[in-house]
Amino acid sequence: MVAVLAGGFAFTAGWLTPARLSAPRIVDTFETVAGKPHPGFRRNHAKGLCVEGYFDSNGDGAVLSHAAVFAPGRTPVTGRFAVPGGNPSAPDTSSPVRSLALLFQLQDGEQWRTGMNSTPVFAVHTPEQFYRQLLAATPDPATGKPDPARLKAFYATNPETQPFQAWVKAHPPSSSLANAAYYSINAFRFTDSAGTTRAVRWAMVPDAVYTPITDAQKAEKNFLQADLDERLQSAPLRWHLILTVAQPGDPTDDATLQWPADRQQIDAGTLVLERTASQENGTCRDVNFDPTILPAGIEPSDDPLLAARSAAYALSYQRRTREEALHPAIHDTQTQAGTQPPTHTPTPTFTRTREDHS
Predict the structure, then answer these.
(1) Active-site annotation, residues
(2) 351 in a domain, yes or no?
């Protein structure tokens, strides 16, 4: 029995099948793309900002799912804004994509964790494509930057990336974290109290009006946190949780494809973010925002990216927490390097955080 269990662990880790795509290969490649080690930081979305608030359910989501989060009332939420990449000092404009991860803490002890992007579609369809995209983005030793020709060749040979590229081209990044929408990307299975199951995607749609990033912001390395702090000084920030229901034939296993715009949509309630919190000491510091951690009434779909995300996030979490345990000074170094004068609550600079969604 011990031999069987050990063999299964070794197979999952990829030790017995080095040619097979595994979580260690993906996370190792993230580290390579980051250019140098960043101990104590997540391997992707290393640059981020912690937030806290609540979800105010209006009860309308219960028609799709019996999850307790959709019953009328408030659910505490801890979350994190971030930009992609493994470099915690990257400019805010290093990617056209931003992300919002949330953990809903339900009263019965269940949790709903989700990692969302500011694009409604993902660039690739499968974990294998994602890995090849990472390889294409590996820095050229001569320049320290990705080879544009290599990236162009990847996109040319993977036409599934075209919807993502077209959407990004037509939608400039927002001027704020607060006026961007954030999408589940993957589909999930919602089951109501009668046992009926439907495929659902969701989006957090802001009350704040979208405006594109300005030329002045493009010239700044770090502007997202300051903007968010300034807005929170005036009032909490709000997003509506919009649930979109698939019809038969809509793809549930391909995150590169949007569903038609005429699909049923339900406003399930309001996400209210009230404050930022220190990444070093905040509530999201040690959270692994695994999107497959779900309450009863919500299950993963057949999208192959979900299992890959879960495995990679877990390994990233293990590595960064081990680094902190072995080298406690990492915590102090990050705090010293990241602290800036607070605007309304003590928060580290957006450039020196330890959190991402993995």
Answers:
(1) 45
(2) no
